[in-house]
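Aggregate trends can hide what the representation actually does to any particular protein. For completeness, the protein is quoted in full, as a sequence line and a line of structure tokens.
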Amino acid sequence: MWPELKEQIGVEEAQLQHLLELHRSLLEKCQSEEPGPIELSALAALLHSFYTGIENLFRRVAIEIDGGATHGDAWHRRLLQQMTEDRGGRPHVISSDLLDRLQSYLQFRHFFRHSYSFQLRWDKLEPLILQCEETFTILRGEIAAFSARMEELHQG
């Protein structure tokens, strides 16, 4: 179970890294100038994919270790919260600080899926875009710590 999950987590991390690398020039451009409408749409799609990838990683943990992913109306929020908890047989996956950060991406995901692209506003996307790579770095560190704790559990 754990070796397969560890491999799946690695695949998701690599996909997220590829996503950010693919958009690197646009992310860098946003550091110094406001994006136009087409670029804003591309950045919104990036944020949606970014959070979807993170959620895929968390769903794999929920399915493989916790016995299944949550269902129902608020399953996205419950899944995110679940990753901060020690659950029978596994330590927490992320910290409450990262949870707070990721909740903003989850909120954007919901907005993106239920709105038109012309409703996008840079002032709302800017903090998420400018913190995207930092958020990924934090996530990778916390996933590495989770993996190390899981390795200890499965060796001892």
